[in-house]
Amino acid sequence: MTDEAGPWLVVGLGNPGREYAGNRHNVGFMVADLLAARVGGRFGRHKRAVAEVAEGRLGFGGPKLVLAKPLTYMNLSGGPVAGLAQFHKVSPGRVIAIHDELDIDYGQVRVKCGGGEGGHNGLRSMSKSLGTKDYVRVRFGIGRPPGRQDPADYVLSDFPAAERKELEFLVDRAADVVESVVTRGVEPTQNLYHGA
Fold first, then answer.
1. Where does the entry annotate site (Discriminates between blocked and unblocked aminoacyl-tRNA) (predicted)?
2. Is 25 part of the annotated catalytic residue set?
3. Nearest 5°: phi and psi at 115?
4. Neighbours of 88 (CB within 10 A)
5. Of the chain's two ends, which shows fewer C-beta atoms within 10 Å, N or C?
């Protein structure tokens, strides 16, 4: 079913609106913005889906990327993603979700295909709308909240100053991981990046 010459749908998960822009929950948007800059794409409102979309190729004549930032709130991300997958004829195996991950320490970026959603509402919505969990996830570690802070408050707070010093480097690394998944595959990418 997968068209090897077809595009990849790369979805940055986050919440729309300026007030959320620096939140931990919006790191997917940050990585999508960097990828768009790398491929020379500019985000614009999609005509069929509630999302901003940018398109470009990795390198000269390389794989086509359809980069998306759903404009619904996080817990409703799946509808726009499924709409874009249908519009661009992308099978779930060529969908990559970039998201924040509480269960991974800050500073770590991990990739996997399928599996549970770990309580992440954006992933849960995507799995429901796509009808499968078998899509790729690039997981950007944000660590657990300190003390008794509610995880919901934690993900909707901005990165603190100490973490912001590394943030640009880590967003860059996450973008590298996405490109590696597209060009090399999930397992080679795990071998390349998970030890680092």
1. 15
2. yes
3. 95, -175
4. 20
5. N
